[in-house]
Amino acid sequence: MAGIPDSLKGRSYTRVSDWSREELELALDLADELKQERLRRKELRVLPGRTIGMIFHKPSTRTRVGFEVGIAELGGMALYLPASDLQLARGESYRDTALVLSRFLSALLIRTFDQAEVDTFAEHASIPVINGLTDLAHPLQALADAMTIRERLGGLEGVRLTYLGDGNNVCHSLMRIAALFGMHFTAACPTGYEPSAAVVAAAQTDALVSGGSVRLTSDPLDGSDAADVLYTDVWTSMGQEEERAQRLLDLERFSLDAELLSVASREAVAMHCLPAHVGEEITEEVLYGPRSLVWDQAENRLHTQKAIMALVIR
Ligand code: CP
Ligand code: NVA
User: How crowded is the C-beta side of 90, counted as CA atoms within 13 Å?
Assistant: First the structure.
């Protein structure tokens, strides 16, 4: 495998827009290579003696396990730091935590609520800070999604990608990466659940350059029409549990089911970042059916996370 370039050493990944299209492409190419090397059971210990901290304010399966396994495979050590066990929970500032952890660690992953917390870490830390999901964004997920689409469809430019349901963190990051790579992105969301107007405007600006497009609709059938990829996420994100009953009612028409797949393109595939609530945002038939890309998508979290770490950690 080709060597790992130095150009991104020390960089944080707090949102998709931190990186240019070329830089994201570098990560995607490396993730493809790491996937192949892993299949050959080849060891790539590029992080010997490095410890990577992982602060979690919310639960996680894929992000956490992908990091722990990825770090072990790259020869480093993972340190799981549940936020409730840190002095952060007793009021120590993000700034001080970032300054201190920078003296111990080689990189820091954070999953939290407020994007400002990740931004504060990135501002004050002297090590790369990686966003493991906030209420605003899920940039690691978007990278794995782009890898998965590219792997299946052979490229990203011109792909018609429709996101159905809640215009949330996953939708935001997916929209940003889609627009950067020249995809035609549609968010089909009910009124009141649209993605952030600022994120849509920024993505539309990127799409002007890439030749892609970004549009919104409140009609799931119109949104799915002729799409190459139908994508969905949970209707109740972490931290929104009290709104669950209302959300189930409001989002009911947006379930990714066989009917929506039937109006998409003939070869259309279904994606979901997981965890899934079967019978809510996706049907059992679609999730486990022949057009589901969901399990490849979950696996690709590992390869893309390894690629990010290998690129940014000194
Ligand atoms: N998709 C995703 O981020 O999964 P986890 O919440 O399990 O990390
Ligand atoms: N939108 C979901 C994604 C989970 C990976 C959440 O924030 O809970």
Answer: 3
Nearest CA to ligand 1 atom 7: 61
Q: Which token pair is 96?
A: 């001080």
Where would I find the beta strands (DSSP E) of 40-144? 51-56, 77-82, 107-111, 129-131
DSSP string, 9-38: TT--BSSGGGS-HHHHHHHHHHHHHHHHHH
Ligand 2 centroid to residue 192 C-alpha, Å: 18
Q: Among all ligands shown, which has an atom nearest to the Cα of 274?
A: 1
Q: What is the pLDDT of residues 216-228, one digit of tens each?
A: 999 999 999 999 9
Q: Which fold has domain 140-297?
A: Rossmann fold (3.40.50)
Assessment of whether the complete model's pTM goes beyond 0.90: yes
* Domain made up of 16-137+300-312: CATH architecture: 3-Layer(aba) Sandwich (3.40)
Is 204 within 8 Å of 214 (Cβ atoms)?
yes
Cα–chain center distance at 232: 13
Instruction: Give 46-89 pLDDT, tens digit per residue.
Output: 999 999 999 999 999 999 999 999 999 999 999 999 999 999 99
Q: Which two tokens stand for residue 278?
A: 């079967």
Domain residue spans of the chain: 16-137+300-312, 140-297
> Ligand 2: which residue has its CA nearest to atom 1?
237
Our mutation pick for probing the ligand 2 site, out of 145, 175, 242, 273, counting the most ligand atoms within 8 A of Cβ, is 273
CB 234 less than 6 A from any atom of ligand 2: yes
